[in-house]
Amino acid sequence: MFYLPDEVFVNGERFKTYISKETLDKRIAEIGQEINRDFVDKRPILIGILNGSFIFLADLMRHISIPCEVDFIKLSSYGDEKVSSGKVTERKELDANVEGRHIILVEDIVDTGLSLSYMVKKMKEKHPLSVTIITLLHKFEATKYDIDIDYVGFPIKNEFVLGYGLDYAQEGRNLAQIYVLDPEN
Ligand code: IMP
What we know:
The protein has helices at residues 21-38, 54-61, 114-124; strands spanning 7-10, 13-19, 45-50, 69-76, 89-92, 102-110, 130-139, 151-156, 161-162, 178-181. By secondary structure, it is α/β, with parallel strands linked by helices. It has one domain (7-181): Rossmann fold (3-Layer(aba) Sandwich), CATH 3.40.50. Bound molecules: inosinic acid. Inosinic acid is lined by residues 52, 77-78, 84, 107-115, 160-162, 166.
């Protein structure tokens, strides 16, 4: 059984359901169909940005029915706080050779856009054929970096969310849907 409480306390703060599992499943299936259509005969390599994207990537990939590959890179920009540290630290390098390949970067959430702009620059240095960006969530009002996001699951307000891979000081990733910090804490 999936872990789906209506509300949850994480590090002493109350979070309530924001995007239900049903809504997530439906939208992720749609994105999978778009990838099947847009990448036919391209054998894309999906690159998950760890840690946050692992659940989204795992679910998305199971809707992809064209030949594809996967690899991971690990970045950290948040530390254990609710606001980005403003500095990207790389913790795990890519293993695959992506030269001449179609890369699909898979992110859990775009906030300021710092992590993704860093990733796109880094990927382009490896001479891929194309770099496509997918994010499950986009805090569009908070984005300061100029990045073209190709597929967005859900545009959201500038609020702190967790669950479905996203954490608050490393807790809450195991929640099966997305929760938002309740202002009436
Ligand atoms: P950016 O570099 O400012 O766009 O931040 C992107 C990263 O910050 C994401 O990959 C997440 O790991 C983390 N992040 C941003 N907003 C949230 C949030 O609301 N909850 C949990 N993590 C977040």
